Amino acid sequence: MGGDLLAAVRTSGRYRTVAEAERAVQHVLAAFAGQLTGEERRAFLKSVPPGLIAGRIRDERRRTACEFVDSVAARTEGATHATARWDASTVLTAIGGHLGEELLQRVLAQLPKGYALLFGRADLTPTA
Q: What single-letter DSSP state applies at residue 100?
């Protein structure tokens, strides 16, 4: 199951076991993939190692970054907003490194403000 990616998540997230890192990856990606649409979703799913996203991806209503973190917390037994933010940021930063710059920029352009921070990037989107 995506050994290099899982190892990166375990190391950067300081998870004690591979199983903990795997759980974080599955919960975050299950919540995240439904936020993307069209070509960006297809390209994102092709870039993620097989087996990391379990089950069918459902379209979900567009969530702010904060709401997304809350949805990760709701999927994770015993999670708080802070631990879910840690999981989301750890996983998405690792995934971002595997996507390539061009795809990552397209993905971020499709999402509401605030997601760049979860990918370990500065959120430099101009405000109106």
A: -
Neighbours of 18 (CB within 10 A): 14
Say how far residue 10 (Cα) sits from the centre of its chain: 14
pLDDT value of position 128: 52
Q: Is 116 exposed, middle or buried (0-12, 13-18, 19+ CB in 10 A)?
A: buried
* pLDDT band with cut points at 50, 70 and 90 for residue 50: confident
Backbone angles phi, psi at 122, to 5 degrees: -70, 140
Assign residue 89 a region: left if phi > 0, alpha if psi is -120 to 50, beta otherwise? Answer: alpha
Confidence of residue 49 (pLDDT cuts 50, 70, 90): confident
Picking from 55, 51, 118, 108, the residue whose alpha carbon sits closest to that of residue 84 is: 118
Residue 103 · residue 22 · CB < 8 Å: no
Does residue 126 carry a pLDDT above 70? Answer: no
The two three-digit tokens of residue 123, written as one number: 């959120």
Rounded to the nearest integer, the mean pLDDT of the chain is 89
Terminal C-alpha separation, the chain: 42
